[in-house]
Amino acid sequence: MQRLRELSRRVEAVYGEMADIYAGYQQARGLHCRSGCGACCLHPEIEATVLDMLPLAMHLFDQGTAESTLAQLEAAPAGNSCPMYQALSFDGKQGQCRIYQWRPTLCRTFGAAGYRDKHGKTALSTCKTIKEDRSSAYADTLIAMESDPPPMLSHARQQVDQLDYELSRSSLPIAEAMQLALRKVLFQACYSDVDSDQQIA
Ligand code: SF4
Q: Tens of pLDDT along 103-152?
């Protein structure tokens, strides 16, 4: 359990650095998300790894709610939408993340980040809403792409994955990654209990 706990702390430390890098770039370029917008969270292809979800699983374990959360996730109907999203409007596009502090890597790059296009050049990944709301900042950002390149989506992924390649092997729907992370923490806790019982005996 101690190893998982240490790993979780290291993932959280990388998440802290990401806030400076990705949110910092978006602030500096004026490419902020619209207040209360949850459109990214409705996207059916938001994925996470087990490692991404480890800090949340560890937090729920420490709160004593890991088993009940796992049971809820297992009982929820299968679907692609994120179970951590709380819609606050009729069309679902306004809403909030219920686990914002613990959200996985990809969610931390929502807004504006870089990727390599098919010609190997750095391109900007941002959404329609930001392009419309911040059209002038978006145009300035495209002009400044060479002198002020965006932080890359792949860099965020690598920073987390390198902490444990086994737990980052697969990108899965968030609900599935979350269930696996909870099972891993609960199994490890159980195993640690058996170990300590044996040491006492
Ligand atoms: S984890 Fe949070 S930020 Fe990420 S998709 Fe789900 S609700 Fe949105």
A: 999 999 999 999 999 999 999 999 999 999 999 999 999 999 999 999 99
State which ligand 1 atom lies nearest to the alpha carbon of 43.
5
Question: Which residue type is seen at 153?
Answer: L
Query: Are 150 and 113 a contacting pair, CB within 8 Å?
Result: yes
- Domain residue spans of the chain: 2-31+45-76+102-200
Question: Is any atom of ligand 1 closer than 6 Å to the C-beta of 107?
Answer: yes
Task: State the virtual CA torsion across 141, 144, 146, 151 in degrees, nearest 10.
Answer: -40
Cα→Cα distances 191→45, 182, 197, Å = 34, 14, 10
pTM, entire model = 0.88
pLDDT in tens, 51-87: 999 999 999 999 999 999 999 999 987 776 789 999 9
Q: Find the angle CA(100)-CA(102)-CA(193) to the nearest 5 degrees.
A: 145
Structure tokens at 78: 């299968």
> Which atom in ligand 1 lies closest to the alpha carbon of residue 46?
5
- CB of 84 closer than 6 A to ligand 1? yes
**What's the farthest any 2 CA atoms get from each other in the chain?**
70
Give the integer Cα–Cα distance in Å for 111 and 23. Answer: 8
